[in-house]
Amino acid sequence: MTRAQQVGVIIGLAIVAALTMLRASDPPLLRLGRNLTFDEYQRIKPRSYENMPVRIVDIDEASLRELGQWPWPRNRIAALVDRLSEMGASAIAFDVLFAEPDRLSPRNVVRDVAGIDPSLLRQLPDNDEIFAQAITDRPVVLGFGISNEGSYRPPVKAGFAFTGESPFGAPPRLDAATPLRPQLEANAAGLGHISLNPGATSTVVRAVPLFLSDGEQFFPNLALEALRVAQGASTYVLAAAPEVADTLTDAKIGDFVVPVTAAGELWLYVSPDRAERYVSARHVLAPGGASPEVVAAIEGSIVFVGTSAAGLQDIRTTALGQNVPGVSLHAQTVEQILSGHFLSRPDWADGLEILTIAVAGTLLVLLTTFVSPAVALVCGLLITAAGLVASWLAFLYGGLLFDPLAPIVSGSITHFAATAFRFLVTDRERRAVRRAFGQYLSPSLLYRIEHTRDALRLGGDDRELTVMFVDVRNFTEISERLAPTAVVGFLNTLLDALSRHVIANEGTLDKFIGDSIMAFWNAPVDVADHPGKAVRAALAMRETMARLNAEDAFGFGKEHSVAIGVGIHTGIACVGNMGAEAHFNYSAVGDTVNVAARIEASCKDVHFDILVSEETAKVLPGHALLEAGMLALKGKSTRTRLFAVVGDEKLGASAEFAELRCLHLKLVDALRSRVPNRKILNAAKLKAAKFPGLTEFYRRISRRADHFADPGKSG
């Protein structure tokens, strides 16, 4: 063993030890990667939806439109309980807080009215009393939330028994809760907390706490209470780890045993959100009674009452990436328990992953140092494949969660470090030759020659590009009144300022053509969100032009402003080295390039400075875009739909632009039907005055009615 190899092994093993200790400390970034891996497993193989006796009575948008805005008076909630009880619901759980008195109760409404006889108040109905009476002796579970104020603890309606060491320190801490109305709290058959991820930094709900604890008492969550009440059970039996305090292993609720994490959480194995889970509240409260289908869905089911209405802000994100009502996660908790399909991460999983990092890392260091980096790479790939397959099979067949990501990343870092050391120490002669040739060739060209086979051959590859053309408006008129040297100075100032935005947004400057710029995105390397970055570059150019004109950077006087037109299109083009064997350029050609150039020319017809094609507009969600019509581009047999870029996502989300977009859609409909609507046009003009460049766009839009006509009816 040479001295260089000895040093390489020592450094490699030190890196392996550092990575092993890093994994043992389990920092947030590693936990995030692990969770994202487990999310991906669920997306590949989500829990199959089974028609369980679990339903959600949804206070949806349709129910709010039909029955009135939220909160509903509690006599209506009482009517909902009556209907569900009559239909035979085995339990009714409310994912709703009833902490305040019902402000819509007749007694509360008239209490502060001057001159009302106090005896009359006592005769008026109280909705809270009606609701409390409705839930009496019925299987109703009410929810409570976690509070940061006070010291209130709700009563516990069930008993708790546990085996092993004391587990009271295992669940998340409950210091205070939101107090419920006393008569509701007393009459409910069960009380459960509705918090889905207390204290979590992630918005994704991956595990739900089945219990909270104040150090002396457990408080079950809403789903468990609903399951307990539905079975008529009176006690929770918790299994704690033997000889380890404050650690839970499973919980028994009636006939069901649920494996939990050490903190008493249930890993959610979610299924895609399905309409079959939901019954609209308006169908339950239908004046003529519920339909037979609704009765059949409710009968014998555990019913959760909650809301999917966006305005009530109870939307959560699942491991599948879906945004669902929070009540659906309570329902899925019970579904998962009834189905017996659980996920679990064994206590020894961390130890196995740490050992894998240490063993695999040591093997890779020895192989890289004494055999070859290529052999080490092959072995590393085999270990990676085996780890991925084993982790996936454990999830697929056993519901076990093992992290393949940390060992793979650690192995990659180890292999890279060992290979880099070998390269630095043992390949000095080769690097000396490379440095010598580097005196005669540019570093970038040398790199391409070294790493790309046939890098100097002519030809290209087809790939998706976003192409931009920028042109100066009225350049001929400008150049006629300037000396040639002044024209060059003007172009240098302008093109330098504009081209910076292409580079800043990861674009490739193809060429300068007189007073025009051609640029493209997504070559020679992949660029994420390349249409969005092209548009951001165009918007930055608009701001730069406004600044240059305001500063009179061209010396024309502030009354002579310079304008540009920008056309952007996304599509397939051929990109690569083009020209002669001895002299070539890296460029792009094809119909996509031609269309982008034609779109830029159409800015004159549309009277707006930035236009994009429909293909580009489709991948710009949230941007402030307005349809500019369907224009006949030179060389195209069919018309092309174009969109004016008014601004970015922030502007697109503004209320003012939403009003303009609504007016614009109405105006486009009028232009398509060829029915003039001067009122809408004038309203759009007034609103457009607040946005850059739209005044002239709307002033001339009625002259372009043919651009909005149905192409199938033209001619």
From TrEMBL:
Ranges annotated as spanning the membrane: 348-367, 374-399, 405-425
Domain Guanylate cyclase: 466-600
RNA-binding found in the keyword field: no
InterPro entries noted in UniProt: A/G_cyclase, Adenylyl/Guanylyl_Cyclase_3/4, CHASE2, Nucleotide_cyclase
Keywords carried by this UniProt record: Membrane, Transmembrane, Transmembrane helix
Pfam families according to UniProt: CHASE2 (PF05226), Guanylate_cyc (PF00211)
UniProt xrefs under PANTHER family: ADENYLATE CYCLASE, TERMINAL-DIFFERENTIATION SPECIFIC, ADENYLATE CYCLASE, TERMINAL-DIFFERENTIATION SPECIFIC-RELATED
Name the UniProt record assigns to this protein: Adenylate/guanylate cyclase domain-containing protein
Organism: Sinorhizobium garamanticum
Lineage of the species this protein comes from: Bacteria, Pseudomonadati, Pseudomonadota, Alphaproteobacteria, Hyphomicrobiales
